[in-house]
Amino acid sequence: MNPFSQVPQISQRIAFPSKRGLNPQVIILFTLLTLVLTTTVIAAWEKVLRPPYYDWVARHYPGLENAENRYKLEQRGEHFFISIAVDLIVVSMLLALIDRKQRKLAAAQERLAQSERVAILGKVAAQVAHEVRNPLAGLLLYSMHLRSKVAARFSESDAQVMDKIIETINGLTSTTEQILNFARPLRLEIKRVDVNRMITDVVQLLTAQITANRIETALVLDDSGVTGMLDEASIRAASLNLVLNAVQAMPDGGRLEITTGSSGEKLWILISDTGSGMSAEELKHIFEPFITTKSRGLGLGMPYAQKIIEHHGGTILVESEPRVGTKVKIELPAKRGAKQ
Q1: Taking a C-beta distance cutoff of 8 angstroms, is the pair 325, 3 a contact?
Q2: CA distance 81 to 71
Q3: Which alpha helices (DSSP H) does the chain contain, by range?
Q4: DSSP characters over 275-336
Q5: From CA 260, how far away is CA 246, in angstroms rounded?
Q6: pTM for the whole thing?
Q7: CA proximity to 218, closest of 247, 259, 267
Q8: Alpha-carbon distance 3 to 78, whole Å?
Q9: Strand 215-220 and strand 227-230: pairing?
Q10: Of 227, 228, 231, 229, the residue nearest 189 (C-alpha)
């Protein structure tokens, strides 16, 4: 059973109504449904409602002198029931279609507004990071030069202070690089990638953190092999971030399970943890940049992973429950390349 069969898709491409007019398939389907429902209503009248109604008319208007009245009542009753029933069904169908379209349009508008906010925020942050990066590089060079020149004169405590200054500058430089990487356009080099090998490499890179957190790890990799036309560097970076999130969500131990598979033209990676999980409100904002529940970090990991996956024409789905854990599923096209 697919664990995401009931999970709402968080990340999906925005679809706007077509400008070509009404969809012929929808018109044909609607016409066929109307015919089927009309036939059903007529059959229900003939088999179920007509006999008792005709009996009622015959009892209230007996004899030959009331034959014309009986005929009129019978025909009017039949026409009234069938027309009203069919009209109610058709109107209900139309209202359901309109409501569905309105909800889709409202969701699309919300996602568009979200994308615009993210784009503006990303541009501002990137500009600030760009302006800060060069001075930071200068500060790092000056600090390292000063450290090397006067190291012999420093006491141990003074040397530790200088090391802290250099460490802090390196941390700020790393932060600016994260912002710039998030803001700059992706340039993908599409080639065939062995997803099983990539996931194995990612887990090996995080062996130290996994061991330190006493996490049990299980890799359930498809034996038949999972390959796709992907940009390995960016998908590796997205997978690394998602697995790292899972590891960091289990500081006191837990179980990390990563499953891979493919079906038709799609491949998928499922990352499950038994960590702290997220509330519905936190889940709602998971892909918004600079919003994080961690004590450290910029909150760019999930938005950047979403950006990479969507650029490949894929989707990312998240299911989470507080104190139970989180499941993240990546679906990617196995054969076609990234969207242009």
Answers
A1: no
A2: 15
A3: 24-44, 50-60, 67-150, 156-183, 195-205, 207-212, 232-248, 280-284, 301-311
A4: S----HHHHHTTTSTT--SSSSS-S-HHHHHHHHHHHTT-EEEEEEETTTEEEEEEEEESSS
A5: 16
A6: 0.55
A7: 259
A8: 50
A9: unpaired
A10: 231
* 180-208 pLDDT per residue, tens: 666 666 778 899 999 999 999 999 989 99
- Architecture of domain 191-333 in this structure: 2-Layer Sandwich (3.30)
Residue type, 30: F
SS3 191: strand
- In angstroms, the CA 229 to CA 217 distance is 27
What is the rounded distance in angstroms from the CA atom of residue 124 to the CA atom of residue 39? 62
Q: Are strands 254-263 and 266-273 parallel, antiparallel or unpaired?
A: antiparallel
Model pLDDT for residues 1-24, shown as the tens digit of each residue: 444 443 333 333 333 344 445 567
Burial 34-51 (b: 16+ CB within 10 A, else e): eeeebeebbeebeeebbe
- The H or E element containing residue 190 is none
CA trace torsion 170, 176, 179, 183 (10° rounding): -130
Q: Are 213 and 247 in contact (CB under 8 A)?
A: yes
Beta strands 215-220 and 254-263, pairing class: parallel
